[in-house]
Amino acid sequence: MLARPALYTDYYELTMAQGYYLAGRKDEQACFDYFFRDIPFEGGYVIFAGLSNLLNTLEHFEYHEDELAYLSKEGFRDDFLEYLRNFKLDVDIHAAKEGEVIFPRTPILRVEGSIIETQILETLLLNILNFESLIATKAARMKYAAGDHKVLDFGLRRAQGLGGIQASKAAIIGGVEATSNVYSSFVHNTPASGTMAHSWIQSFDDELTAFRKYAEYYPENCILLVDTYDTLASGVPNAITVAKELEEQGYKMKGIRLDSGDLAYFSRKARRQLDEAGLEYVKIAVSNQLDERLIKSLLSQKAPIDLFGVGTRLVTGHESPALDGVYKLSAIEDEPKLKISENIEKNTLPGRKKVLRYSSNDGTFYGDGILLKNEQDADTIFHPFYPAKHADVTTYNAEPLLQPVMENGDIQIELPSPSQSAAYAQKRLAKLNPEHKRFENPHIYKVGISQKLMDLRDELTKNIK
């Protein structure tokens, strides 16, 4: 959480805010929606993350004297700065639960308040939600590929600066079991884990001595890195020697780790060596530029791997460096607003809205309906851009997706821990059909709009043109 978030913004947010103030519009009420258009990683869903960080940050949103002095040097007017001196966010926010499975164009979060309040928090909101949702989604894909095998986050050293703190938290929400990031574990109360680096082994005169010393200090949590010199000729045999010595002392070695080479080949060879020595209980962990596709490939080859350590390709959102979440104005006072683009898919939906998730009787997700806020339900949902495509939803159960999370600037919910959000994410993913979760050409999830919302959009579009 940022201790002083007010200036964590784009310059034009402040120029617009001053413009609203100077135009005498500071008390006008506005509504903005947060949503995204494209699913990253060529996938079928996104995991919503970052809400807890956002709400905690917004509760501490204020301008300090040194920040106001800086803005004065930048040319902002004294009367506007005086307004900011007493500024407090008084917004209402409705949002999906952290860990929710979400889809393109569905409003995931709605912000209502004065035009200045709602405008000025745009960049902060997008920065937090886009990044954490991206990483949670990548983690969920890796965990889906791994199945019952454990996945650990090793990515801090490859993360973009302090973003590694958010990345490790988001990875937990997405489904990884633990992180090597000690700071993130401390701040967010998430499980921490780690083994050793090659430097530990190199620092000793020989590999066996290095292994013995590590086992001496950590007999109950001994995982040995076996690929510093020669994996099969020395690394695994020396690990076997230490494992047998631990048995004599009443301990069991937890595992070995492979960090290079052909992981399928080396894991099979290492497993055979361990089993022949009677060490069937010793686990095999692997790392080295892993992602969901490599994990899937290794398991499809029946590689005897128990644990995957993932790093660079997790915390950087490898292949999709950003989630394209946007924050768009949908109403001023009681007047619905929309944006029109030459690209039809960038047209926005007007008015204050709600979202209903439709599910079959067994709980399986069928689709999302976007309705005007005052609508009770809809019999039919229409494709947002191609209304000839539509679906009857009268036989499905409807669940409101958005809940009040902030009122008048005060948090209204008990913020979940990352582990609680992770459990919720897995529960919701279990309700999503497998065809939406596959990596190759995932089936497109239905997201539609109500007849009334479609009529409002078409009427406004006609009048604007």
TrEMBL record:
GO molecular function: nicotinamide phosphoribosyltransferase activity; nicotinate phosphoribosyltransferase activity
Protein name according to UniProt: Nicotinate phosphoribosyltransferase
Top-tier EC class: ligase
A cellular-component GO term for this protein: cytosol
Annotated PANTHER family: NICOTINATE PHOSPHORIBOSYLTRANSFERASE (PTHR11098:SF1)
Protein purpose: Catalyzes the first step in the biosynthesis of NAD from nicotinic acid, the ATP-dependent synthesis of beta-nicotinate D-ribonucleotide from nicotinate and 5-phospho-D-ribose 1-phosphate.
Reactions mediated catalytically: 5-phospho-alpha-D-ribose 1-diphosphate + nicotinate + ATP + H2O = nicotinate beta-D-ribonucleotide + ADP + phosphate + diphosphate
Keyword Flavoprotein part of the UniProt annotation: no
Span of domain Nicotinate/nicotinamide phosphoribosyltransferase: 150-349
Domain Nicotinate phosphoribosyltransferase C-terminal: 352-456
The family this protein is said to belong to: Belongs to the NAPRTase family.
Protein's pathway: Cofactor biosynthesis; NAD(+) biosynthesis; nicotinate D-ribonucleotide from nicotinate: step 1/1
Pfam families the UniProt entry points to: NAPRTase (PF04095), NAPRTase_C (PF17956), NAPRTase_N (PF17767)
EC number of the protein: 6.3.4.21
Modification after translation (UniProt): Transiently phosphorylated on a His residue during the reaction cycle. Phosphorylation strongly increases the affinity for substrates and increases the rate of nicotinate D-ribonucleotide production. Dephosphorylation regenerates the low-affinity form of the enzyme, leading to product release.
Keyword rRNA-binding: no
Segments forming domain Nicotinate phosphoribosyltransferase N-terminal: 7-130
Key words, A-Z: Glycosyltransferase, Ligase, Phosphoprotein, Pyridine nucleotide biosynthesis, Transferase
Origin superkingdom: Bacteria
A GO BP entry: NAD+ biosynthetic process via the salvage pathway
